[in-house]
Amino acid sequence: MTSEIFQLVLMTVVTAATPLILAAIGELVTERAGVLNLGVEGMMIMGAALAFAGAYLTGSTTLGAICGMLAGVAMAALFGLLTIGFAINQVAAGLALTIFGTGLSGLLGAGFVGLKRDRPGHVHIPGLSDLPYVGQLFFGEDIFVYIAFGLVAGAAWFLSRSRTGLALRATGDNHQSAHALGLPVRRTRFLAALFGGACAGLAGAYLTLAYTPFWSPGMTAGRGWIALALVVFASWKPWRVVLGALLFGGATMLQLHAQAASIGLPGQLLSAVPYLATIVALVLLSSGARKNATAPAALGQAFIAPR
Amino acid sequence: MKKTSFKLALISAVAFAAATSAFAAEKLKVGFVYVGPVGDFGYSYQHDQGRIAMQKALGDKVETTFLENVPENDSDRSIEQLARSGHKLIFTTSFGYMEPTLRVAKKFPGVKFEHATGYKRAENVSTYTAKFHEGRYVIGQIAGKMTKTNTIGYVASFPIPEVVAGINAFMLGAQSVNPNVKVKIVWANTWFDPGKEADAAKALLAQGADIISQHTDSAAPLQEAEKAGKLGFGQASDQFRFAPKAQMSAIVDDWSSYYIERTKAVLNGTWKSKDTFGGMDADMVHMAPFTNMPDDVKKMAEETFAAIKAKKLNPFKCPVLDQDGKAVECKDGKALTDKQITSMNWYVKGVDDKLPK
Questions:
Q1: Which residue of B has its CA nearest to A12?
Q2: What distance, in Å, lies between the first and last C-alpha atoms of chain B?
Q3: Among partner residues B190, B206, B355, which is closest to A9 by beta-carbon distance?
Q4: Contacts of A243 by beta carbon, 8 Å cutoff, 6+ apart
Q5: B74-132 tens-digit pLDDT
Q6: Does B164 reside within a domain?
Q7: What tens digit of pLDDT does each residue of B262-274 get?
Q8: Do B189 and A267 touch (CB under 8 A)?
Q9: CB-CB: which of A212, A218, A261 is closest to B207?
C-alpha cells in the first residue's frame, strides 16, 4: 500500500466520523445536564436542509453552516420549551422532534433538490500538509473536522474543569439538590439542549456542505441515531465519543475497502463488521473496572420546582 | 341569529361534503408507494415522473396519491392505508414490497395491485419491471472502452436478481470490447444513503478504479468520481447536472407509458393480473445523452443501443458462462429466458466477487 492510499483510507475514516462526533458531543452535553433528546436525527436533517439552502442562496459555506446551526437551535428550543418548560415526557417529545424534522426538512428543502455546490477547500499549511503518510491527515482536512475536534476538547475541559460545567453535571445528576443549592436547573438544561441542537445542526451542515455537497430528503440516513448510541458507548465521556466514532467510521470504511480489494468474504458479512465491532467494544468497556462511568442519575426526568 | 348562521354553515358544509364525495366517487384513486424520496433524482424520482405523466394524460378521471420514503420492512401499514382510503389501483415500486403487497392484496380483493421488480403474482397483483440490464450492457461497453487502468468500480445495493443481472450484463458488455477488464464490486447494503454511497466510491477509487458505476439511488458516487477527476454513470435518471465532467451516460427508467396503460385498463375494466418485462423496445429504458467520451466510443454506444432496441442484440445471448466457466443452460436456444434473468442468483465468468448462498 502506497503512502497515498494509506492516507486516503485514514482520511475517509476521519470524514466518516466527523458528523457523528459533532452530533454526539452536543447530545453528550445535553444528557450530562439531565436532558435526553432523542430528536438528534430530526435536528440534524433540519440543519442539513437549511445549511444547504443558506449556503446556496448566499454563496458562502460559513453562512450556510450558521444557518444549519440555527435550524438545530430552533428545533432544540422547541424541544426545550416542551420538555423543560412544560415538563412533557422527553422520550415522546424527542421522537416527535425527529418525525417533525424529517417532514419539515423535506418541505423546506423541496426547492433545493437537484442543485449542487462546490465543496469547501481543505486546509493547507505549506510543509506540514505535504508530509508523507500523515501530512494530509493531520494538517489537510476540511475545516469542519478541526471544529469537531475542537468542540470535543472544549466540552471535555468545560465539563471536568470549569465551575459552570460542574453545575451542569450537578443538574444532571440530582436536580432537586441542584435546585436546593440555588442553581438555575431549568435555564442550565435549556442552554444545554440548545448547544446540542447547534451541534446536531452543524453535523447536518457538514453532510450537505462538505461530505456529499447536495441536498436530498432523508439524507442523514440514521446518523442521528448512531450519534445517540455513541453517547452511551462513550459512557458520557467526551474523548470516548471520538474513539467510538473513529471505531465505527473506521470499521465502516475498512469493510468497504476490504470489499473493493476482493478479499473473498461476502459483502453482507463485512457490512456487519462495524456493528459487531461496536458491540464487542461496548462489552469490553462495560465489563472493565470503571464502574463509575454510568449515566447521569437524573437523565430523562422532568424537573418541577417544589413549592 | 347566531344559531341560524351556525345551522346554515352546518347545512352548507354537509352539502359541500356530499357534493365533493359524489364528485370524488367518479374519479379513480391511484396510489403509489416509493422507497426513497421523490427528490432523489434517481429511482423514486423516475417513478414519480411516471405518475405525473399518467395524471396529465388521464386528467380528471384519476386522482393520485404517493407515499415516499416508505421502509421496505415496514410497508404493510402504508400499503394498507392506501387500500383503506379508497385507492383502487396501487403501485408498490420496490422489490422489498413484494410480500407486504401480497399480504395486503389478500385482504382487499377488490383493489388492484402492481408490484415493481418482483416475481410473485396473485389474482389482483401484477408485476412489472424494466430490462435495466439492457442499459447496463451499453454502459458496460462504454466503461470497457474508456478505462485506462482496466479496473471499474461498481457500487451495488443488495444481492437481489435485478442487481445481479445488472452486474452480469455490465460485465458482459465490458468484456465484449475489452478482454482484460476487471470489475470491483462493493455492496453498500442500502438503496439510499449518500454518505455511505460516497464512501463506497472513495474505496473503489482508492483501489485503482477509474470508472464508477452504481446501482444505488443517489448521485453521490458519481459526484465522488467527478471530484477525483474520473468518470462514471448516472443511476435511473439523468444526473448530468451533478457531474457535468464525469457522467458519460445514465440508464433512464421511463414508467409513464406503463402507468398510463395500466390505469386505463382499470378504468375500462380490462385489468388482469400479468407480468410485464419491457426494455428499450418498449420505451421503458432510455439512455441519457452520451457525453465525456470520444466520438468512436459514442458511435459504438449508439449502435449498441439501436441494436438492442431493434432486438438484434441480446445482452444474455447464449452461450453465457458462469463463474466457473460452465455454460449456463439455454432454455430457449438463443438467449437466457426472462425467467432466468429475473431470478438470477449467479455471476458470469470474470466477476470477482462471491454471492452469499
A1: B199
A2: 77
A3: B206
A4: A234
A5: 899 999 999 999 999 999 999 999 999 999 999 999 999 999 988 899 999 999 999 99
A6: yes
A7: 999 999 999 999 9
A8: yes
A9: A261
Q: Please judge whether B354 and A266 are an interchain contact, meaning their C-beta atoms are less than 8 angstroms apart.
A: yes
- Separation CA B268–CA B354 (nearest Å): 48
Q: How close, in Å, is residue B184 to chain A by CA atoms?
A: 6
Please indicate, yes or no, if residue B183 is contained in any of the structural domains: yes
* Three-state DSSP class for residue A248: helix
Q: How far apart are CA B180 and CA B1, in angstroms?
A: 89
Place of cell 508530509: A131
Q: Which residues of B touch A114 (CB under 8 A)?
A: 39, 41, 241-242
3-state secondary structure of A266: coil
Residue range of the domain that includes B329: 132-252+286-342
Q: What is the ipTM of this complex?
A: 0.80
Cβ B356–A212 below 8 Å, yes or no? no
Hey, are the CB atoms on B198 and A211 less than 8 Å from each other?
yes
Q: Where are the domains of chain A?
A: 3-220
Does residue B110 sit in the same domain as residue B185? no
Size of interface A-B (CB pairs under 8 A): 128
Is the minimum CB–CB distance between B289 and chain A shorter than 8 Å? no
Q: Which residues pair with B212 in a beta bridge?
A: B153, B232
CA angle B351, B234, A224 (to 5 degrees): 95
Specify whether B231 is located in the same domain as B140. yes
